[in-house]
């Protein structure tokens, strides 16, 4: 899988609050979309991955907000897989509007089975 990935997303009306600013919780959704899109762009089907009995779940996530995004903005969501080995995947993210940094984040994703037991990630997902 590629170490870096990015895609564009347009802010939808239902993602903003009464002040017209993207609600902070939506950034976490944007990060999840980025992870799934990275998976898909590498030729993998996440639904099929889950049907195999494995799931990737958030173990830890942090987001620092710099500037607000608003309805209609086109955001570029960039992610870098820092490490994918053992049972975890570590990512860093940037959310930008044009060249302006709006938010940065980090996450640790764990691989588990349907019973919640920690599992090694498949070899095809590993990145040193």
UniProtKB/TrEMBL annotation:
Transmembrane helix recorded as keyword: no
Keywords: Hydrolase
EC number(s) on file: 3.1.2.-
Gene Ontology molecular function terms on file: fatty acyl-CoA hydrolase activity
Entry annotated with the keyword Hydrolase: yes
Top EC category: hydrolase
Coiled coil: none
Family: Belongs to the 4-hydroxybenzoyl-CoA thioesterase family.
PANTHER family in the cross-refs: 4-HYDROXYBENZOYL-COA THIOESTERASE FAMILY MEMBER (PTHR31793), NOVEL THIOESTERASE SUPERFAMILY DOMAIN AND SAPOSIN A-TYPE DOMAIN CONTAINING PROTEIN (0610012H03RIK) (PTHR31793:SF27)
UniProt protein name: Acyl-CoA thioester hydrolase YbgC
């Amino acid at each position: 899988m590629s170490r870096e990935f990015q895609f564009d997303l347009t802010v939808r009306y239902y993602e903003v609050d009464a002040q017209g600013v993207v609600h902070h919780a939506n950034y976490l959704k944007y990060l999840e979309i980025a992870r799934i899109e990275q998976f898909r762009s590498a030729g993998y089907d996440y639904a099929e991955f889950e049907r195999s009995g494995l799931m990737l779940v958030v173990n830890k996530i942090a987001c620092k907000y710099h500037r607000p995004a608003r309805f209609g903005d086109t955001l570029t969501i960039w992610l870098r897989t820092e490490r994918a080995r053992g049972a975890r995947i570590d990512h860093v993210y940037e959310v930008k509007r044009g060249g302006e940094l709006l938010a940065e984040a980090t996450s640790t994703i764990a691989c588990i089975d349907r019973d919640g037991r920690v599992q090694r990630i498949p070899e095809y997902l590993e990145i040193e």
